[in-house]
Amino acid sequence: MIAIGRLGLGLCLDVSIKRASLRPVPRQGTLAVAMAALSASYCLTLLSFIFFFSSGILHCTEARRFSLCSQVSKELFDKIFLHKDDNACPAKNFYTYDSFLNASKFFPKFGAAGSSATRKREVAAFLAQISHETTGGWATAPDGPYAWGLCFKEEVSPQSNYCDSTNKEWPCYPGKSYKGRGPIQLSWNFNYGPAGKALGFDGLRNPEIVANNSLIAFKTALWFWMTEQKPKPSCHDVMVGRYVPTKADIAANRTAGYGLVTNIINGGLECGIPNDGRVSDRIGYFKRYAELFNVDTGPNLDCENQKSY
Ligand SMILES: *[C@@H]1O[C@H](CO)[C@@H](O)[C@H](O)[C@H]1NC(C)=O
Ligand SMILES: *[C@@H]1O[C@H](CO)[C@@H](O)[C@H](O)[C@H]1NC(C)=O
Ligand SMILES: *[C@@H]1O[C@H](CO)[C@@H](O)[C@H](O)[C@H]1NC(C)=O
């Protein structure tokens, strides 16, 4: 792909050089100069188009995820996560664009269902939720509170080891902490166990790897997003319109929308509460990202009227 770009550059330069040197005597000047300038700028436009197009394709071919990386270019990713690599952020240099794209390879349906708007909205919602989970933002932060996603790798002062000892299917390993780690802040033995099983690592004996390997870190976030854990639907199904509420869901006001995704992620602590600050932070991130993706947010952003699962 790069070769095509270089070839184009060579040809274009040749042509303009020839035109310039063929330019007749100065008297006929104005038109000729204008035309040379025009053709040069035409060439430049064409070239930058070829260059951006081919470099985009190149990156996407490597990641084998054309639809996702065409939606989230490196430029957009950097605009979204303005401060993730600041010195102030403990996750500095951990969450890379590369690891995000590579991880998404394992979940080909992510950001690939429905219309173009649906795809963008799903990706924006995912990035917004992981941003709240790892936020380093505060009300008066530079660039605003919603420019500080992916600042943390792991929970700073966990209140417990997040071991549900009544869960016999995914027994805690002695001395291990299942605190929040990675973009979605995966927590609890009953999440580390199945995430590890699905992704090929030992989540119960080696939960630390989620904070030490950025590819695995992003994979755990996408695994959580894509996987239905009954009675909850998957966040993916909710954002792409595949969620069918049961009678109990309807009675609990669990209607589709970003608010329901918040309910799936942390509803037990955050939903059914008027004006919860954590929920507003999740919504604030989503609004900023939806704007950057040039897509509307859809209805039901809040979960203040929803019962949790
Ligand atoms: C992503 O995949 C590319 C191509 O396979 C590889 O070169 C790169 O090291 C990977 N990066 C990460 C962080 O996994
Ligand atoms: C792995 O993660 C743990 C925290 O979960 C951290 O204390 C440790 O330093 C990390 N190790 C490496 C090699 O990054
Ligand atoms: C559902 O929402 C309405 C307001 O729209 C509220 O009055 C009602 O209490 C909610 N139901 C539950 C179960 O939270």
From TrEMBL:
InterPro entries referenced in this protein's UniProt entry, alphabetically: Glyco_hydro_19_cat (IPR000726), Lysozyme-like_dom_sf (IPR023346)
PROSITE patterns, per the entry: CHITINASE_19_1, CHITINASE_19_2
Superkingdom of this protein's organism: Eukaryota
Keywords in alphabetical order: Chitin-binding, Disulfide bond, Membrane, Plant defense, Transmembrane, Transmembrane helix
GO molecular function: chitin binding; chitinase activity
Residue ranges of the TM segments: 31-58
SUPFAM superfamilies assigned to the protein according to its UniProt record, in alphabetical order: Lysozyme-like
Listed GO biological process terms: cell wall macromolecule catabolic process; chitin catabolic process; defense response
Ranges where the Glycoside hydrolase family 19 catalytic domain occurs: 89-111, 216-226
Keyword Disulfide bond on entry: yes
Protein's name according to its UniProt entry: Glycoside hydrolase family 19 catalytic domain-containing protein
Organism: Carya illinoinensis
